[in-house]
Design brief:
With 138 residues, the protein is α+β, with helices and mostly antiparallel strands. 22% of the residues lie in helices and 40% in strands. It has an eight-stranded mixed sheet. The radius of gyration is 16 Å and the shape is globular.
């Protein structure tokens, strides 16, 4: 069964978002705030019992988070889904005419991390991976 592993939010103001999620709702900060030059953003990483929450404040309108914020406003930018066998997901998605992108290889040539583009996943970047606490089974 799949489980939500992570959620990435794009926000206009990182400090305001931390006031809501960390101080108000009780998420635990595990990293940041810090700059992420590859995304043209500043971020913080928070943890709940069931998943991690990354909060991104774009600093560059030409990078994906900045483009997202400008076009759609604040909201869910990406999510991570943990599944026991990411390779099996590839086959099922191909049958549904969804392209799976990227991915890093694990043993025996089976993909460990897969990505679905927002155009294929209802406007959200989706990362599919094996649960971090257990190896993928062949």
């Amino acid at each position: 069964m799949a489980r939500l592993a992570s959620l990435v939010l794009v926000v206009r103001n990182l400090e305001r978002a931390l006031a809501v999620y960390e101080h108000g709702l009780g998420f635990e900060r595990i990293e940041g705030p810090s700059d992420v030059p590859s995304l043209g953003a500043r971020h913080a990483l928070l943890r709940a019992d069931n998943c991690t929450l990354e909060v991104l404040e774009p600093r560059d309108d030409t990078m994906p988070p900045g483009i997202f914020l400008k076009a759609r406003g604040e909201g869910v930018f990406a999510l991570g889904v943990a599944v026991p066998k990411p390779g099996d997901v590839t086959e099922r998605l191909k049958q549904a005419f969804v392209r799976v992108r990227g991915g890093s290889e694990e043993s025996a040539g089976r993909p460990r991390r897969l990505f679905l583009a927002p155009t294929d996943a209802n406007g959200v970047l989706v990362e599919v991976s094996a649960p971090s606490d257990e190896p993928e089974t062949p």
